[in-house]
Write a structure and sequence with these properties.
Layout: H1 5-44
Length: 58
């Protein structure tokens, strides 16, 4: 299967391209997922003045 240095070099280039694509997809997905979680948490923890529990402690 692997006979010459060119075969090893081409496999290394193809492998690095595949790893770069996997890293790009992972980083894009993780940034998008983190942004979605932050949006969800900001909506979840958003309090109005009328329903806030702050006036309980006055």
């Amino acid at each position: 299967m692997i006979e010459t240095f060119n075969d090893v070099l081409s496999l290394a280039v193809i492998g690095s391209i595949v790893l770069a694509c996997i890293y790009y997809v992972y980083s894009t997905f993780s940034k998008h997922h983190a942004r979605k979680i932050m949006e969800f948490e900001s909506e979840y923890y958003e309090f109005d003045d009328e329903t806030s529990t702050d006036d309980f402690y006055i």
